[in-house]
Amino acid sequence: MEIHSLSKQYLKLLAESDESELVSEVHEYFVDYLALSPFLFIVDHPVSLNNSKNLITKTLTRSTEVITSVLLSLKKVPIIRYQHSSDAARQLAESVRSTVAREAALFDFRQTNSKITILILDRVFDPVTPLLNQWTYEAMIHELIGIRHNRVSIFGPAQTESKDIVLSAESDDFFKANQYSNFGEIGLAIKTLVDEFQASSKLVEPKSVESIQDLKKFFDNYPAFRKASGTVETHVTLMTELSRIVREHALLDVSEAEQQLVCQDDHSASLNRIRSLLTDPRVRLTDAVRLVLLYSIKYSAKKKEITSLTNALVSKGASDETVHLIDLMQKYANLKNSQFPNGTQSTTNSERSNVNQVASKAVASLTKRLVKGLKGVENIYSQHEPELVDLLNKMLRDQLREPSFPYVATHQAIGASEAPKDVMIFVIGGASYEEAVAVHKMNVATPGLNIYLGSTCMHNSRSFMDEVMTVMGHQLHEAQGSQNESISRFAGFPTRSGGAVKYELLR
User: Fold this and answer.
1) Which residues are bridge partners to 450 per DSSP?
2) Bridge-partner residues for 182, per DSSP?
3) For the CA atoms of 194, 196, 197, 200, what is the dihedral angle to 10 degrees?
4) Euclidean distance between CA atoms 199 and 83, whole angstroms
């Protein structure tokens, strides 16, 4: 049973049940949310809207509880704004306002810097970002393999058994240092990690133990060696799997075509490139569908070309349901009628040797094309910037238009026209790791500014496509199951997906 707060009746029941009088105190901790990083949290409801574009009742309740719990953890009183074009955003904004008013005593922090501006958005504000390939480490893992509650499942070549890997920046220094690094940088970092591990492994070779002093040194170094061994194994395994997927399915070519499509205005070049990729046997159905979806969003008036590309998908094995998604995605994108962004254990010697060989091959094959563009534009695979960045910049300069993003009427909203210092963005319908990376960069670049990002879930492209199917009325999922369950409808699509890395607290 989920209990967000304890009523007087629950406390009375607890007291009456404590017959031995063992309970001396009851403390209140506001941790009713899933924190993924110091600035990122989710509700963990992969499907949040019904086919009337309204919040599912359970999601509305849980989102309200999560947002208010985060506010109480941060000791912040909200100034609430929302996306005017979204009924779901208005519903949630009013629900949060009502809860804050009802629990006024809890929100009486008696400090001058207790204000935070919340902007509640509907995923429809940017349907492009969740459809793009990702090239930062954590985002790639979630897109290509899937992360759920600290775990990543790697399937072997036979696809019969999976290996679970625990992935957390709380306990993994390498991941903490590199989770926002691009793929080329990760390849180089893993090579350095392996080289350092090989050097340290010489200190714990049993054959080097010849005296009591050597034995003491061996036991002193062994715990660190075991931890380093696990770290190397984890990230070499992940990098090897990522590199395999990238290589076998021509994702560099697919991603370059995506970036050209969304960041440039060359219709003929984009169309020809997409047509070529749709006939490439290396390109998976899921990637082919994403390309056509992106094209149909940007060039929705090009009906003849969209039909031609759809026919190419059918030739590639797309089901009727997958084809129907193209029409649904256009309708979903038209809800906003937005314009596209415009460029704006112990290890043996042989095992260690094999680890080094695998890592070296991965580095050699992956970094050449990714590192070459690091001057100027970071690289050709990450030109796109989420629309969330533009909204945040306008918000921080106090240029966000009130008719489009009105305030909820509260006494805190009076006189709230100055630029905020603390900001929370909450996205109904799921956020993406590309948006999380953007928020991280803004926090790092602006000392004294605190931006928090929350959402109903963390999407990858497959889970986002599934939610669009639900929101647009094709099929309604009332059950709030895992994303693994919710993304299985696309025949031939990979189904390894999930939530995100779990942290104990926002700090």
Assistant:
1) 422
2) 136
3) 160
4) 55
Distance from C-alpha of 12 to C-alpha of 186, rounded to nearest angstrom: 55
Measure Cα distances from 400 to 97, 111, 118, 445 in Å: 20, 27, 13, 21
Cα(246)–Cα(243) distance, rounded to whole angstroms? 5
Q: Residue ranges of the alpha helices (H) in 337-448?
A: 349-371, 387-396, 433-445
Q: Which residues contact 270 (CB under 8 A, 6 or more apart)?
A: 257, 260, 261, 264, 295
How far is residue 223's CA from residue 116's CA, in Å, rounded to a whole number? 44
| φ/ψ of residue 293, rounded to 5 | -60, -45
Hey, what are 218's tokens? Answer: 């061996």
Q: What DSSP character marks residue 35?
A: E
427's enclosing H/E stretch is strand 422-428
CA 50 to the chain's CA centroid: 22
**Residue 207 carries which DSSP code?**
G
pLDDT digits (tens, 9 = 90+) for 371-416: 443 343 357 888 999 999 999 999 999 999 999 999 998 655 555 5
The amino acid at residue 200 is: S
Q: Is residue 456 packed enough to be buried (19+ CB in 10 Å), middle (13-18) or exposed (0-12)?
A: buried
Strand ordering across the sheet containing 422-428: 34-37, 40-42, 450-455, 422-428, 115-122, 77-82
Find, among 507, 502, 505, the residue nearest to 167 by Cα. Answer: 502
C-beta of residue 139 within 8 angstroms of C-beta of residue 445: no
Q: Which two tokens stand for residue 230?
A: 């696990």
43 touches 66 (CB < 8 A):
yes
Q: Are 420 and 117 in contact (CB under 8 A)?
A: yes
| Per-residue pLDDT, 224 | 63
Residue 428's beta-bridge partner residues? 122
Tokens encoding 418: 């100055």
pLDDT at 261: 96
Residue type, 84: H
Other Cβ atoms closer than 10 A to 376: 6
Radius of gyration of the chain from its Cα atoms, rounded to whole angstroms: 25
* Run of H or E including 394: helix 387-396
Distance between CA 405 and CA 426 in Å, rounded? 13
Flag residues of the chain having pLDDT under 50: 1, 215, 338-353, 355-356, 358-377, 475-507
How far apart CA 411 and CA 407 sit, in angstroms, is 11
Task: Tell me the C-alpha to C-alpha distance, in Å, between residue 432 and each of 122, 175, 198.
Answer: 13, 18, 36
Closest CA to 178 of 170, 507, 169: 169
Residues 6+ apart with CB under 8 A from 298: 261, 262, 340
Per DSSP, what are the bridge partners of residue 162? 155
